[in-house]
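Hi V.,

You were right to ask for the full record rather than a summary. Here it is.
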Amino acid sequence: MRNLSFLRWRVIGLLLSVVVIVALPYAITRNTSNDALDASQWVTHSSEVKSITYRIAYLSRDAEAASYRIVLSGDDETAQGRIDDASHAISKLIWQLRDLTRDNPDQQALIGSLQTTISGRSTLMWQALWRARHNDRPGAEKALRDAGKLFVLGDILDKIVSTEDRLLVDRRKAAQAQSSNYRLVLGIGAFAQMALLGIIVVVSERQIGERLRAEERESQAVRRSRQIVQAVREPIVLLDKELNTLLVNAAFAELYGMDPDETQSLPLAELGGGAWNDGPLLQRLGDVMLRDRELWDYELNQRTADGADRRVVVNARRVQQESDEPALLVTVSDITVRALVEKQVKELNRQLEGKVEQISDVNRELEAFSYSVSHDLRAPLRHIAGFAGKLERHLGERLDDKGHHYLGVISGSAQRMAQLIDDLLVFSRLGRGALRLQPVDMQSLVDEARALVEPDTTDRRVEWKVAPLPVVVGDENMLRMVWQNLVSNAVKYTGKCDVARISIETTRAANGDYQFTVADNGAGFDMEYAGKLFGVFQRLHRASDFPGNGIGLANVRRIVARHGGRVWAEGEPGKGARFHFSLPASDAGDTHRQDRS
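Predicted structure:
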């Protein structure tokens, strides 16, 4: 039977060799055909990329022309519709370009620059439209001129097209080289086929000798396995189809008080003073033997030879013996200590769940209280501000400078309190609303945050350094608030610097999390008070020096915590600060852009 099995495998080996000899030329021919098809597809791909690029250029110029028409001639619904349609279409076309060129980092970088340029042009055009609608025609025209000067599209579009043309030429050269390689491979394949036939003959003869040696090694392995079974400290028993013992190792004999010299043909149900006389277990073991199933982690209590009650786990499977008679291999694991520990752990977990539920209830009550108090304080504040204004108008000229000062303090304090209440409501809502998770482009959020603070940097010199930022999974609106708070803080606290230097970068932690950093060379802070930075209404600088209400960083901490990350800061008085926050890694992608400053 063994010789027949060996012969069968030799025949299979010869058939496989014939298949290889026939299939190799076919595979090479097929690959050549596939490469030709790929070359045609690349031509179509390049044409599609260039077509989309030209379409973006046309839509951008059409939107610019429509903007000029509105600025010069007034509101025009048709022109506004062209602008809106162009903006929507350009956004879709850029994403199509990204998808078509995702295998080319150079093109991805150019498309990133294109998107940034279009975004800048769009921002200035929208400013021009806003100014035109507010009768600031010179400002609107200046904004449109700035859009054309500061954000030039032509060079970027030409680079994208020329890069695609160069890629097409390179791919054609690669296809020609591949064709030459295929001819070489065909020659090598023919030589290999002849060599393979010779090897088959030699190997077949050697396999006969290897088979004989393997049989001897198998016999030795069986003897060694029996020795290993006896040496293993885990109880093991081998049973026949009647559940009588065939082989018992020393650990099994010791645990169940068996005589090492009399372990053959003993009924399992009688071993260990009836420790195995468990009806469901015996039925399961018989089922394993009859139906060739396996028994996994069957737990039961047994009283062993030492009189101790133990919790054990039984595993069993059917094995084939050399005589082709099936046998049942049973192993026993003592889990008494583990069972006690698991019981204690379950009790501790139950207590912990109770504590967590109590803490959750307290947090919900605190958030509800904060929201209720903030909401109920609005009406009295409106009354204070309103009646202060009425009192000032009522007294009129009878009110002296001191009276005006007092009423101004009352009105200003009421307004500041109203702002604090609004901020507290925002802080409360951040803890209650559900997260809307989606892929979020952190680079775009930083660009938006920078655009918002540009009016505050008009008369200042600010040097920006923004590293390529990844795409993460999170709530886009919440993460937008994080960047707006951190970027605006960096601009604010560098207000007294001759040259403000603000950098934004990201790294990967050892566990794969993203770590983002916003650094500046501004006022900084004393690390002794760093713990107060992220508290509600906690400030380390006077409001007269740097305005604010102390709620922004608290919002940052809450948002990042809800995303599973953490926030921390480093600083030194007069030497700037570095604010860090981390977010868990995701499969949304590691798309980056080129550095911009």
